[in-house]
Amino acid sequence: MCFRRKVVVEGDQVRPRRRVGCLGGCLIFFAVYFICSAILGWLMGDMLSPSAVTLKDKTVYRLELNGTLVEQAQEENPFADLMGQMPYYGNYADQSTVGLDEILSNIRLAKNDDKILGIWLDGGQLAMAPASAKTIRDALLDFKTSGKWIVASAANYGQTNYYIASVADRICLDPTGQVQWNGLTAQKMYYTRAMEKLGVEMQILKVGTFKSAVEPFFRTSMSEADRLQTEQYLAGIWDEYKTAVGASRKLTPEQLSALADRYMGLQEADEQLKAGLVDTLVYGQDMDSLIRIFAGTKDYTTLNTGKLALVKRPESKAKDKVAVLYLEGEISDESGDGIVGKNVIKTLKKIRKDKSIKALVLRVNSPGGSADASEQIWRAVQKIKADSIPVVVSMGDYAASGGYYISCGADYIFAEPTTITGSIGIFGTVPNVNKLRDKVGLDIDGVKTNQHSDLEANIFYKGMNAEEHALMQTMVERGYDLFTRRCAEGRHMSQDAIKAIGEGRVWLGTKGVEIGIVDELGNIDNAIAMAVELAELESYQLTYFPEKQDPFAEMLKMFDQTTDEEKLLLKLRDFCSKPRIMARMDDVIIK
């Protein structure tokens, strides 16, 4: 509490003036906030709880490929348009998210409902990883078995977006646009020289030749092991792109490689047309005429992803449930935007208590994170299994390191061919700021009661000696032993066999099946079907976790104006802030 007192002069009188301090100010702020929230919620009740949309005849599903793809869609934010019109938040629309779950549900509806004539893929800049793109592409291919049409249009196609759009019956490109068909690259940033200039040395503890997540802190380029694994999984993704696009566009993989060597992203639109990457050059504003031809009417109606998701689906009356739990993002212990250990455990306890839930599907999309949180989630999953509830994992873009840790104990594991998984390894990082401390003129001194009482302070401010390094390395090796033991138990393999394919090495889903860390290639629908089979259910309904975030919480995110550069510095700060043991793959930018 920080109450302040100042004096005020009134005529000849001098008296102290009391000011409301921090505690009082906070109380007033929160009181006003909650009152305003309640009033706003009452006034905007209809807007905050969107009503169902009635599907009309002659509807076209306008699947807009823009924004950022996430696993689970959130409640529609009624403040998005308002904030997008404000100068400071004018780029909010560019930061919008699209739920993979809603897209897949909408494509299924579009396939089966005769009121929907076809799908218009509008735009080509949806940020997503290859595995999610394949999931959408496969769903669109399944949609085409209904005999309905797909048209794609964009001013510019990102490479992964073009991979999706290639299924279309006609691909349209703006006459001034490009198709980014250039091949793939995987880039990593290395901080070693920057940290040397600051006077910070990162002390590394790790197990696994291929565990490259720590390399940016003591190298300035890829190790040979990391280069090997990166080349292999990048080649696997590129082969998938060439094979799939080639089949749809009637081009050979060799022809597509030759086009990539020309860097089609810098070629004129006419060249894209001549090469067979697109079928028609047309401005976006003129697409209505083309859609009319495909729809067979000028009176068609379009619904975007958010609106079509509000169309009521048939509801199952079954008593038995299959729970689908989305686990997306980095794994942390207590807080964060991704997979927070304590929150996941609370949700799993809730699932255990619900006796109507007969099976669990974990949708995992994570590069890993805290080793301890991964172990705690693993334990909670085992408790589910102990109650005779089958657990099936559906891997998304990533299920690596800690992401694989929380998956390995499942009864059955599905992955996409381009899922990045494995990375079975552990590392620890401890910054040594001795040189930085010396630069700024700070001295450290103190007393202790036992030999290693000051270990934590010493390794930060002076650096590890040989004995301290050995103690820390032993702790990391214990973590690796536990990790590989969990994998061995879950996959019914020997621990030595797991260690042989471990070492922190990253694998694609296709290879994961070959080496036994994945059971089968498939998507979330396959995982749900397997869960139903294992639970021997004749009828069921799906229930989803976690619950979607309310619009007010989403509104608060709009005020996060952190730049990419600031996020990078925050990540570096987090890496250097405390010693920690991590089960995480490295950050790779694939383009």
Summarize the structure.
The chain is an alpha/beta fold and 591 residues long. Helix 18 packs across helix 19.
What does this structure look like?
The protein is 42% helix and 22% strand. The chain has 591 residues and is an alpha/beta fold. The protein has 3 domains: 5-43, no CATH class; 59-182 and 263-308, 2-enoyl-CoA Hydratase, Chain A, domain 1, CATH 3.90.226; 321-547 and 576-582, 2-enoyl-CoA Hydratase, Chain A, domain 1 (Alpha-Beta Complex), CATH 3.90.226.10. The strands form 7 sheets. Strands 13, 16, 18, 19, 20, 22, 23 and 24 form an 8-stranded mixed β-sheet that branches. A 6-stranded parallel β-sheet has the order 11-8-7-6-3-12, with helices on both faces. α15 links the parallel β18 and β19 (412-415). α13 (341-353) packs parallel to α14 and α18 (466-491) packs across α19 (495-501). Residues 1-20, 42-48 and 79-94 have low confidence and may be disordered.
Estimated radius of gyration: 27 Å
Uncertain runs are 1-20, 42-48, 79-94
Q: What's the architecture of the largest domain, going by CATH?
A: Alpha-Beta Complex
Largest sheet: 8 strands, mixed
> Count of helical segments?
23
Q: CATH superfamily name of the largest domain?
A: 2-enoyl-CoA Hydratase, Chain A, domain 1
